[in-house]
């Protein structure tokens, strides 16, 4: 290949480059979608916990919170998160009318206070009273997950 052909090839190849790809922009959160997702997450937790389905109840937690609950349960000699929530749910729901449990797990019963990528939620009981304790949620990627249970209101 002649020197002139090589030079022409280099010039052509230099012009074929593209600009580096920009990092994908994170979509601006939609407040309505966030609110609904938070309500759905808390309602799912309540539903599974009251049904004694500890595995599904614990699946509503952030990975860090789940590890913490597993470690605390193990240290106490009472199994893991799923075993504890299964037993707790069965105890709490004993004698509770099925309709009460179903009503307690409705997303519209969840009252949400959101700030950025964190939120607190309280559940209104079927009788209308607000839960004494709050649930802390965090956005993890595109999901809202429970990061702590039992926060005191105030």
From TrEMBL:
What are the boundaries of the signal sequence? 1-21
The keyword Signal is annotated on this UniProt entry:
yes
Q: Which InterPro entries match?
A: NTF2-like_dom_sf (IPR032710)
Q: Which UniProt keywords apply?
A: Signal
Q: Per its UniProt entry, which superkingdom is the organism in? A: Bacteria
Q: What is this protein called?
A: Lipoprotein
Question: Can you name the source organism?
Answer: Solirubrobacter ginsenosidimutans
């Amino acid at each position: 290949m002649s020197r002139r052909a090589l030079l022409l090839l280099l010039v052509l190849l230099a012009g074929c480059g593209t600009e580096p790809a920009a990092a994908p922009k994170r979509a601006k959160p939609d407040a309505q979608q966030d609110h609904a997702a938070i309500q759905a997450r808390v309602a799912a937790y309540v539903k599974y916990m009251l049904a004694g389905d500890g595995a599904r109840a614990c699946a509503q937690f952030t990975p860090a919170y789940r590890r913490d609950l597993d470690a605390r349960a193990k240290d106490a000699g009472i199994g893991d998160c799923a075993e504890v929530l299964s037993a707790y749910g069965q105890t709490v729901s004993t004698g509770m009318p099925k309709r009460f449990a179903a009503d307690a797990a409705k997303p519209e019963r969840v009252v949400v206070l959101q700030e950025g990528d964190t939120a607190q939620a309280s559940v209104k009981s079927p009788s209308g009273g607000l839960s004494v304790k709050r649930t802390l949620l965090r956005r993890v990627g595109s999901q809202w997950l429970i990061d702590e249970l039992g926060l005191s209101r105030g």
